[in-house]
Design goal:
With 223 residues, the chain is an alpha/beta fold. It has helices at residues 47-54, 77-87, 103-114, 118-131, 147-159, 177-194, 205-208, and strands at residues 3-16, 19-32, 36-40, 61-67, 70-71, 88-91, 165-169, 197-202, 213-218, 221-222. Strand 7 (165-169), helix 6 and strand 8 (197-202) form a beta-alpha-beta unit. It is globular, with a radius of gyration of 17 Å. The mean pLDDT is 88. This is ABC transporter ATP-binding protein.
């Protein structure tokens, strides 16, 4: 299985009031092409910090992060931005949709930034949203959508540019249990259909059991 994500001896230390707090203490992790991996761990174990590192959203890390064959530690700021845009998709607990754009436009925008034509981007957006059961809500703005519908739009947006790797941080944590089950099932189905790899942080053992593999982060290392 081809490596899509490779993390080697990843470390992150924060300093608060002159006290060094080592959040990541030498994480080693590999995610293969098309593999969906659950990242389990209690609050404070470093899950979000690890996703921030892998998502190239923060500096200050030591160690190696490889994304689809690219060594991220050797990238300048422009290179990191291009890698996020071209190879990564993100789904967060809160959808972060643009409130003045409708569902289709929220999924079109990242594609336009990526270089797609408006017609290509719109067709792709409508296809993804329809697959997620939102074919009748294409022109609705976020304020007109339920929480589950908004998160479906966020999933479509994350997959719009066909990323090699999708990163998700408690993607259904803001939804009630029944809605979370439905949205998460659709999320997994679409990720598998698109052929992306995924690293999904959660504290929910039941959701984690649906994925291909579970890794546990405890005290800053993979347990």
């Amino acid at each position: 299985m081809n490596e899509i994500l490779g993390v080697t001896d990843l470390r992150r230390t924060f300093v608060q009031a002159d006290v060094a707090i080592e959040v990541l203490r030498g994480v080693n992790l590999t995610v293969g092409q098309g593999e969906i991996v659950a990242l389990l761990g209690p609050s404070g174990s470093g899950k979000s910090t690890l996703l921030q590192a892998v998502g190239l959203l923060e500096g200050g890390f030591e160690g190696s992060i490889r994304i689809a064959g690219i060594e991220a530690s050797k990238l300048d700021n422009d290179g990191r931005t291009a890698t996020r845009r071209d190879r990564l998709g993100f789904v967060y607990q809160f959808h972060h949709l643009l409130p003045d754009f409708n569902a289709t436009e929220n999924v079109v925008l990242p594609q336009l930034i990526h270089g797609a034509t408006n017609a290509e981007a719109k067709a792709r957006a409508e296809a993804l949203l329809t697959t997620l059961g939102l074919g009748h809500r294409l022109s609705h703005r976020p304020s007109q959508l339920s929480g589950g519908e908004q998160q479906r739009v966020a999933v479509a947006r994350a997959l719009a540019n066909r990323p090699a790797l999708v990163l998700a941080d408690e993607p259904t944590g803001n939804l009630d249990e029944s809605t979370a089950d439905v949205v998460f099932a659709e999320f997994l189905r679409l990720v598998r259909f698109e052929g992306s790899a995924a690293l999904i942080a959660t504290h929910n053992e039941r959701l984690a059991a649906r994925m291909d593999r579970v890794v546990r982060l405890q005290d800053g290392v993979i347990a």
